[in-house]
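hey so i finally got around to running the thing on that chain from the lab meeting. sorry it took forever, my laptop kept dying and i had to restart like 3 times. anyway pasting the input first so we r on the same page abt which one it is
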Amino acid sequence: MIKEKRFLPRIPKTLTFILITLLILILIFIFAKIDIWSVIRALETSTTMYLFCSIIPQAVSILILVKRWQTILYAMRYQVSFSRCFKIVMAALPLTSITPSKSGDVIRAYYLRDEIPLTKTAGSVLTERIFDVLTLILFSLAGMALYHRYEFAGAVLVMLVLTALLLFLLCSDLQLPVREPWNSKAQNFALSMKLLIRNKKALISVTLYSLLIWLLSIIQTLLFFYALGIEIPMAFVMGNIPIAIFIGMIPVTLGGMGTRDAAIIVLFSEYASPSELLAVGILFSAFRYWLLSLIGIPFMRMMTKIPRS
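ok and heres what got predicted. didnt touch it at all, straight out
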């Protein structure tokens, strides 16, 4: 008789408690400074047309993201169809949206465990993250140059140096001072980046896909500002929203909520009131995290049904 076993990765209870506690404390601090009713009013008066239009770049960016991951897997010599990659990416969204630094994306390795070693698939996700960080850094520096504001250039350059160092370590053939099984796992983890660097066509494709993904994300964020009646130059959004995203990646809250909102309030303070900017942060989380989480749940349910006798 065939039974179904469901697999759902669990975040350690202690870590979950700490992250939720930190999130609550950050939200209490924010709402102690901002009238919650003014935030609700700002959301109620938002322009529906802009919110609806913001879904378009988001949907397109997901399709490009899937194609980018498929290209990385192809560079590793694994043929995975676009439709299967799409289902796996969508199935990872519910976990990705609530874990710090989008670490839940490594669940993709579990979904492909029968086809690709876990460490190799996890390495492909890390490769995506490196391209994401490098692209965000590029957009941030370009936005600063266009708008002639360089207050946070130093912090962005530090991020660039750290990412370049990680990239160097992944592409080098350094042997770790550990036992052989762990060295092999480390080599598998770095394999996708090494093979991608050697495959010029795939490297160019992944770079272009990354640029398009984050350009569409910046356009979507700009539409959130417009929905709330906030006139703001695209160059300023381009220069500063990557910084807010980086701050949201700091693993201190679930899905970057709270920390990312606080960063948006500080970074864009000259263009709108704190309540309006908090509303922007809420829209950012609602569309880019919560909505995607809900859409991804049916895919997760489908992917985590494992037949066994």
